Amino acid sequence: MQGLNLGRFTSSNSQDVTVFMLGLRINSIMRPDAYLPVMKAYLNMVKYLENHPETGFLGQETWLKRTTVSIQYWESPQALQDFASNSSAPHMQAWRNFAQQASPHVGLWHETYQVPATARECIYFNMPAFGLGKARGLEAIGKETATAKRRMSRWKNPNK
């Protein structure tokens, strides 16, 4: 089972993270002219971000269905805002195109969360690198990270 991290792992990073959830909903499946350009623009943005680590983009997971969901991890809200407003990055033009051609056949949404290191915990059991662990790094769970309570309090007192 190549690519699996066998055993229990958690995120090894003590830094805050910005979680950006976004997606689209295909309201009219018979109108690919409305949703395919949006999907293509999104995939182009992800490719750009993966090739430009200086943006502060840390990684993402995406599920493609009628309601598409992507969870992205960013260094900070400012890094996300800087990307969104950068006229030489692909987001600005894609957003203008969507706003000009907006139709009821496709919907967009997003939510942004600033997550302090002291307010999160995660566990990955027999999983490939995924989510926050993939974005920020993994470490095997040991005595000091064996429970969710210990993982949650870990960064409140990092010397403990």
From TrEMBL:
Cross-referenced InterPro entries: Dimeric_a/b-barrel (IPR011008), Monooxy_af470 (IPR025444)
Pfam families the UniProt entry points to: Monooxy_af470-like (PF13826)
Protein name: DUF4188 domain-containing protein
Species name: Rothia nasimurium
Biological classification of the source: Bacteria, Bacillati, Actinomycetota, Actinomycetes, Micrococcales
